[in-house]
């Protein structure tokens, strides 16, 4: 038809859930679809997708009327097929392997019966947080980040448990979707942590900038007072004419020392000096 245009598909690994868009900006990385990084439910790609852009992958999401959604980070769908709710481990010592020589095979819906320890020392574990230096500062994970991270470690442990049980007994199906979910969740959690650190760094830099600006303002005020003192001294020594006020023409901080130059047009003179 007259006025029609040619449509092009999104690049590989990207997609959107709209009928059509006039700009390529709506094409979203498929691993971000259905996640806040892809705009969430209000964005152009609200339906969760696998990395190869398949909607609502089994074992990755819970199903809702007409669509699907991710569980909070650190939680998992209760089934590898049509999951309807999110489950999480209880908090406590890992108790899924009471006898290493008689490991058991568990299905996804059973995982919430077992406990998972939360990593101590703010996520640093037994060694504890490293000491800070002038160039490096170490921060703890938030409580939510640490809980999610700890649960992801246990998700990995259950995936490995199935692999070992299959080798040991030969009758345990390995939950591949759990590994994919765990890797996806780790990537999103690390992105969230990076964003929080970036925001904290920006706030710290802003605070430091304001501090430096205040220091400079105080230095300029200090140099003005120094030049007032110079004016008073010169005026006391000069009887032939009125001394024009000395004003700072240099006011520089080097280390903990202020270097100043005070200048007057009458007398035609520069007075230089330092103050600590």
Structure notes:
- The chain is α+β, with helices and mostly antiparallel strands.
- It contains two helices and eleven strands; from the N terminus they run ββββββββααβββ.
- The protein has helices at residues 143-169, 176-237, and strands at 14-15, 28-29, 62-64, 67-69, 76-77, 86-87, 90-91, 115-116, 247-254, 257-265, 268-275.
- The strands form five sheets. It has a three-stranded antiparallel beta sheet, with helices on one face. Strands 1-2 form a two-stranded antiparallel ribbon.
- Helix 1 packs antiparallel against helix 2.
- The mean pLDDT is 90.
The counted number of beta strands is 11
Number of helices: 2
Biggest sheet details: 3 strands, antiparallel
Provide the succession of SSEs. EEEEEEEEHHEEE
- Return residue spans where pLDDT drops below 50 for at least 5 consecutive residues: none
Question: What is the approximate shape?
Answer: elongated
Beta-strand share of residues = 15-25%
Tell me briefly what this model is.
The chain has 276 residues and is α+β, with helices and mostly antiparallel strands.
What key phrases describe this protein's structure?
276 residues, alpha+beta, two-stranded antiparallel sheet, 11 strands, elongated
